């Protein structure tokens, strides 16, 4: 026979909890022995373990007596429903753990893995931390406001970056962000950009579609032209390079 303290220690509950279960009518209260102590038998261990398990599974204390006295079929059904609810809680807790871990992983917080992989690729081709952060901030806005387009845009950009010349152009464009808009080097970059547009005409058209999508969202476009005078000028120069040569009447 067990004392209340021994029963509590074995079941992993407090003595106060056992007394509360007595008051609620969940656990039978045994008679006292000659010394005035309550003594608990093996059935008390079984009953307390069942009560604790159901309570920890989310069953309100008021419903536990009904389940303990229910027919086996009804109890099995209730246990199955509890198992489904617990599985959902496990998934939610795992998701919370993943978000906590993401707090320590920089760019992976708030962004899908595909976007993070893209940012990693930009760093690998030569963008510095500040430049990657600029890209990251734009992508965060895009993921929130236009989630259905993300995979399509990433596929376009990834295809373009497979060309080493495009990858180097991407790096050089970012390097030029803070140049004065009259810097002569901008024209050289614009010419390279125009040449690559002609090489990748189909992808260039897709990139133009992407820029239009972004403007429709009232965001900066894919290279942040709205915040860089140098980029604005570079865009104008590249557009001029792409314009077909004018024809003189009668020539």
What does this structure look like?
There is one protein chain. The protein has 251 residues and is an all-alpha fold. It has helices at 4-11, 15-24, 42-56, 64-69, 72-102, 113-125, 129-145, 150-161, 164-175, 185-199, 201-216, 229-242. α6 packs antiparallel against α7 (129-145), α8 runs antiparallel to α11 and α10 (185-199) packs across α11. The radius of gyration is 34 Å and the shape is rod-shaped.
Write a compact overview of the structure shown.
With about 250 residues, the chain is mainly alpha-helical. About 65% of the residues lie in helices and about 0% in strands.
Reconstruct the topology from this structure:
Elements: H1 4-11, H2 15-24, H3 42-56, H4 64-69, H5 72-102, H6 113-125, H7 129-145, H8 150-161, H9 164-175, H10 185-199, H11 201-216, H12 229-242
Helix pairs in contact: 6-7, 8-11, 9-10, 10-11, 10-12
Radius of gyration from CA coordinates = 34 Å
SS-based class: mainly alpha
The best one-word shape is: rod-shaped
Taking the alpha carbons of the first and last residues, their distance comes to 115 Å
Q: Which strand-content bin applies to the residues?
A: under 5%
Mean of residue pLDDT values: 82
Poorly predicted parts: 213-225, 247-251
Largest sheet: none
How many β-strands, per DSSP? Answer: 0
User: What is the helical fraction, as a range of percent?
Assistant: 55-70%
Number of helices: 12
């Amino acid at each position: 026979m067990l004392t209340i303290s021994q029963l509590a220690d074995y079941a992993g509950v407090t003595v106060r909890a056992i007394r509360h279960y007595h008051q609620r009518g969940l656990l039978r209260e045994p008679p006292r022995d000659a010394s005035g102590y309550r003594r608990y038998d093996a059935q008390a261990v079984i009953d307390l373990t069942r009560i604790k398990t159901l309570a920890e599974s989310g069953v309100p204390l008021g419903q536990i007596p009904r389940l303990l006295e229910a027919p086996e079929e009804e109890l099995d059904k209730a246990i199955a429903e509890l198992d489904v609810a617990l599985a959902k809680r496990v998934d939610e807790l795992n998701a919370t753990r993943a978000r906590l871990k993401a707090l320590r992983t920089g760019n992976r917080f708030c962004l899908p893995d595909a976007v993070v992989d893209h940012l990693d690729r930009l760093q690998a081709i030569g963008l510095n931390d500040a430049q990657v952060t600029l890209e990251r901030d734009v992508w965060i806005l895009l993921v929130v406001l236009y989630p259905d387009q993300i995979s399509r845009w990433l596929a376009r950009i990834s295809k373009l970056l497979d060309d080493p010349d495009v990858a180097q152009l991407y790096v050089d464009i970012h390097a030029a962000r803070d140049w004065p808009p009259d810097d002569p080097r901008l024209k050289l970059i614009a010419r390279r950009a125009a040449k690559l547009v002609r090489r990748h005409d189909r992808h260039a058209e897709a990139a133009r579609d992407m820029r239009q999508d972004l403007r429709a969202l009232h965001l900066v476009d894919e290279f942040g032209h709205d915040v860089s005078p140098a980029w604005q000028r570079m865009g104008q120069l590249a557009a001029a390079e792409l314009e077909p040569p004018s024809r003189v009447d009668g020539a």
